[in-house]
Structure formats: structure tokens, C-alpha cells
Write a structure and sequence with these properties.
This protein is mostly beta strands and 123 residues long. The chain is built from one helix and ten strands, in the order E-E-E-E-H-E-E-E-E-E-E. Strands 1-2-3-4 form a four-stranded antiparallel sheet, with no helix packed on it. A three-stranded antiparallel sheet has the order 5-6-9. It starts with 5 loop residues before the first strand and ends with a strand. The relative contact order is 0.21.
Length: 123
């Protein structure tokens, strides 16, 4: 829903992300990983389901194999207001905790995400 689109604060200058309500009743995240001009745009998008469980999980997307930046993986997500941070477990076995701001979060890393776990406010 275009009237609900808002930018997501990201920690890196190489990424622009937005979150919005979907026409289907869920929430969506769109991620654009900037790269040199002339390359095919690296864009990822994902939406949650309309169900209560789908809204509780939120939505996460990623972009990898970015032209000119081998190994870079950008990840972004949207979560409920009861979530203060997410813990992202990466393919290399490491994990990173990312703060949530205004319902969204973003991370630039060098390994693909294996799982994303919400951390509740006050938890």
C-alpha cells in the first residue's frame, strides 16, 4: 500500500530499504543493494502472510552476488513493534544481533543468513 511506504534506517551507505503494508494484509520489506551503474540492479523483496502468525514473524529478504562486491550479503527485515532486536545466525556459524528501529532492521555481512530470531522488548 503506497501510503504506508517508509524508509528503513540502514547502517551502511550501500543499501536502501523500505517497509510497507501489503495489499494482502501482511507487511513487506524491499531492499536495494547499490552497485556500479550499468549492472543489473540487486533488489530483494519479501512479504509476510496476513495471518496473525505471519504478522508475528514479519518478513526478511536478502541480496547477494552483487556485481563488483563479491561475498557481500545485504539482509533487511520488518518485525512487530514488540521486537527490539533480531539475532541473525549466519552460514559461517557466527551470529549478529541487530537493533530494530521503527519496526525494521538491516545488516551487511559476508555470509548468508541461516535463521533470524526476534528478541522481545525487555527480553
Amino acid at each position: 500500500m503506497s501510503e504506508s511506504i517508509r524508509p528503513l534506517k540502514t547502517e551502511t551507505p550501500n543499501v536502501t530499504a523500505w517497509i510497507a503494508k501489503s495489499l494482502g494484509g501482511g507487511v513487506c520489506v524491499l531492499l536495494w543493494a547499490h552497485q556500479p551503474s550499468g549492472d543489473t540492479p540487486s533488489i530483494g523483496a519479501s512479504c509476510s502472510e496476513e495471518s496473525e502468525e505471519g504478522l508475528r514473524r514479519g518478513a526478511t529478504t536478502q541480496v547477494s552476488e552483487i556485481p563488483g562486491e563479491p561475498g557481500r550479503v545485504d539482509i533487511a527485515g520488518v518485525v512487530p513493534s514488540t521486537v527490539s532486536a533480531v539475532s541473525v545466525t549466519l552460514a559461517d556459524g557466527s551470529s549478529k544481533t541487530v537493533p530494530v528501529e521503527n519496526g525494521g532492521w538491516a545488516l551487511e555481512t559476508e555470509a548468508a543468513p541461516q535463521s533470524v530470531q526476534s528478541i522481545a522488548v525487555g527480553g
